[in-house]
Amino acid sequence: MEHNKIIEIATAKVNLSLDVLGVLENGYHEVEMILQEIDLADDIILEPRDSGIALSCDVGYLPLDASNLAWRAADLVLKETGLEKGVQISIVKRIPVAAGLAGGSADAAAVIRGLNRLYQLGMDLETQQRLGLSLGADVPFCVTGGCAVARGIGEKLEYLEGFGSHWVLLAKPNLGVSTPAVYQRYDQTEIVGRPDTAALIRAIQADDMRYVAEHMVNVLEPVTTQMHPIVGKIRRQMLQYGADGAMMSGSGPTVFGFFRQYGRASKAYKNLKKSYAQVYLARTTNRRLER
């Protein structure tokens, strides 16, 4: 029996590391990165319809058609399963867009999970992640959340346990970043520092947040900072306000910093809020085993 309404939590992610290993034959970049779920999240509300997909959102800047990943996720699931039904999707948006936080991917993943529950489709995790991959490289991780090393184009996941709940402060400047443009510039840039992924994995498993914070490396950060110097400015401000470490997430432009104490994180939040509209205080979370 189908449900009347399903609410799914679409959680954002930050990169604890991001390395580019090369270019694959298909033109995509081969990456090795550590993805960490945080509790900054959108709400995805799904209700049954007799047919068709209807999409609404509480903010006015998101497309409400097939150019929205959540809409495409619903269409994909309905076609894959042959279900002769539709769905009403309502998005309560909190994750900033074009921010390097996988907001669109998280929404798509939540729609896949939610439709599976709404219509009791019986799709296993592997099927949900396979469908998600056709929408974007971050979607398979967003289906599960937690903490994982992502390889290939981001779809080969090795899950990690042990990273606890830590304060994360995020600030996004008022600009969007084109991921393809960043990778194109990366190909023409000499990269000096690369992450020691193995050492970061050991620190995560030991829940050594301070080591992770001090040794995070994102090889795309110098590229995006060169294009948008404000990214570097925010990173310096995070450190000035007491972050144990700060780094850009994904291809940017959001910068995040780790804080051991809530008081220091809260004070940094207030200081950054004076200059930037999109500032968020969140915590790392590991909800993967609950799904």
In words, what does this structure look like?
The chain is α+β, with helices and mostly antiparallel strands and 291 residues long. The chain has ten helices and eleven strands. The strands form two sheets. Strands 1, 2, 3, 4, 5, 6 and 8 form a seven-stranded mixed β-sheet that branches. Strands 9-10-7-11 form a four-stranded antiparallel β-sheet, with helices on both faces. Strand 1 (6-23) and strand 2 form a beta hairpin. Helix 2 (103-118) crosses helix 3. The chain is globular and about 55 Å long. The two termini are 20 Å apart. The mean pLDDT is 94.
Question: Which key phrases capture this entry?
Answer:
291 residues, alpha+beta, seven-stranded mixed beta sheet, four-stranded antiparallel beta sheet, 34% helix, globular
What gap, in angstroms, lies between the N and C termini? Answer: 20 Å
Q: If you compute it from the alpha carbons, what radius of gyration comes out, rounded to the nearest whole angstrom?
A: 19 Å
Fraction of residues in helix = 25-40%
As a percent range, the share of strand residues is 25-35%
User: Structural class of the helix and strand makeup?
Assistant: alpha+beta
Concise summary:
The chain is of the alpha+beta class. It has 10 helices and 11 strands.
Helices and strands in order, then pairings?
Blueprint: E1 6-23, E2 29-49, E3 53-57, H1 69-81, E4 86-92, H2 103-118, H3 125-133, H4 139-144, E5 147-152, E6 156-159, E7 167-172, H5 179-186, H6 197-205, H7 209-215, E8 217-218, H8 221-227, H9 230-240, E9 245-248, E10 255-259, H10 262-273, E11 278-283
Parallel strand pairs: 1-8, 3-4
Antiparallel strand pairs: 1-2, 2-4, 2-5, 5-6, 7-10, 7-11, 9-10
